[in-house]
Design goal:
Strand order of the largest sheet: 7-6-5-8-9-11-10
Distance between the termini: 33 Å
Low-confidence stretches: 5-19
Radius of gyration: 22 Å
Order of helices and strands: HHEEEHHEHHHHHHEHEHEEHEHHHEHHHE
CATH class of the largest domain: Alpha Beta
Strand content: 15-25%
Oligomer: single chain
CATH superfamily of the largest domain: Vaccinia Virus protein VP39
Number of helices: 19
Amino acid sequence: MTVSTETTGCPGSAGSPGPAPAVPDAPRTAVDAGRWPDVARLPRASWLRTAVAERIVRKALGALPLRVRLGATQTLGLGGPLMVVHDPRAFFRRIGAGGLIGFGESYMAGEWEAGDLVGVLAVLAERAASLIPAPLQKLRAVWASKQPAAQRNTPEGSRENISHHYDLSNDLFALFLDETLSYSSALFRGFPADHTLLAAAQHRKIDRLLDQAAVGPGTRLLEIGTGWGELAVRAAERGATVLTVTLSREQRDLAVERIRAAGVEDRVTVEIRDYRTVRGGYDAIVSVEMIEAVGAEFWPEYFKTLDRLLAPGGRVALQAITMPHDRMLASRDTFTWIQKYIFPGGLLPSTEAIEQTAADHTDLRVSGRDTFGPHYAETLRLWRERFEEQAPQVAALGFDETFRRLWTFYLAYSEAGFRSGYLDVQHVLLTKEETSR
């Protein structure tokens, strides 16, 4: 899974009946300044920038269907999920200095809370394009932080970016994923779902992709982005011969174990390899939520690689998280909280970007698309609930309170994007035209 850009998420947490969740007290655990320097200290920000940010944020919050309690004395908003800002001075200063990065860091620091965190973030996600006045949005290039050059998805940069997230700990991911260890949207039969249905829903998603790619006995399949090997196992069980490539050593090692345990190691090869260095010809290519880690700069090369590796008559089945095209264009050069803390170098494409890049640089054409954003909302809800339930086990693995707040925010932030409709996820089928370049 790779989620990036300004706001993200799934179908509403607001759908749960019952009393509103209680707002927790501000955390008492000190932030480790060595591990989290930008969270432990308040950033430097001019009084003017902070004042302007406070004025804009106060006005925006006052017009939203939220209740925002600032300190002990003031409440803004039109009613709705409750957001409690324990330290307004720090909250506005962080936003003044870092925009949405500061907003996320303020949560990590415990300066604000929400009992229904997804509900609060979904309200913001629904209005992502209009929270900042249009005249000020035109100044985005001046005030917004730029993506660091170190996060470019060159072959070396991609290895470091992928390792940052996926090499955290296999044990960590196992705490909140289901037994398939699938870290991408599942495909449910209906809502709401519970955790016992997640593995079957993941297999349903995998089988749909393999069906779209026409994977069966004798298929030469390339998988770009191994994960922990579930798709490769399922394809091999259909009789395919699979090459699956990854840049994560932690994932590779466990995927090899799981493939061996499934008894299909004779039909699956797992390699630590950048997609750009793969050679050969394949009847089918499948890639699940990997395009989000490619970066706009390298989208042409990514699609050219698919085109080069796909045999005549072959099929490419992608699972991709997408965002609106106008928001992608507005934020593609901006450094975001997700990029800083979760997925360095990540960028969500739009449907238009996928179609146009393939058309401009390859003989591949989009011949089918299925969207299922609400299913990602449900998937993320189940992950988030399990992650929160497993807090003692997360701590036992050596992850501190700030990390746990970081990941709670990330999962809720992502869920909110899908629930609000700001984000979508889709299966994209690409086929090659008869003519070749």
